[in-house]
Amino acid sequence: MASQMIEIRWHGRGGQGTKTAAQLVAQVALEEGRFSQGFPEYGPERMGAPIRGFTRISDQPIRLHCRIERPGVVVILDDSLVSTPAVNEATDGDTVFVINTASSPEAMRRKLAVNGNSIYCVDATGISIDELGRPIPNTPMIGALIRATDCVSLDTISTDLRKKFLKKFGERVAEGNVRAVKRAYEEVRT
Fold it and tell me: Could you tell me if residue 131 is inside a domain?
């Protein structure tokens, strides 16, 4: 995916870190010398409400300044959203799905009603509870996304998380997030 633009649409609920994940992946791509955008789209701004985030990464300047209409990757932070029409909107047989779920990729394929797509599943909520003590699946989902797409480097995201989270939250939270990303990268199922 190095020579073309990758467009990622994130689906989650308020409080799960959807906006943060979309922006963090874009920031890491910039640090790696590529062009990127990361931004949210809000509906009702309340905890638990569905929200979307968007990330674009390219080796060339990005001239688009709109939401992503035809994503190459769909990241779903809450598997209760899998059956909603917004998740499948404008996807095709090449769209990669990365889903936070304890269910199998086959079960998610049936719920999504897709054929031929690559589907990656990881229990990001379980990992975040183990590593952070809270159900915030965004950083583990970044690990699963990296495994599915190689959109950014696992080393760069780990370094970036340490820097950003150490200042704001301290060593325990920073290292917990790094462990969560690495665990999800290793534990993702396809």
Answer: yes
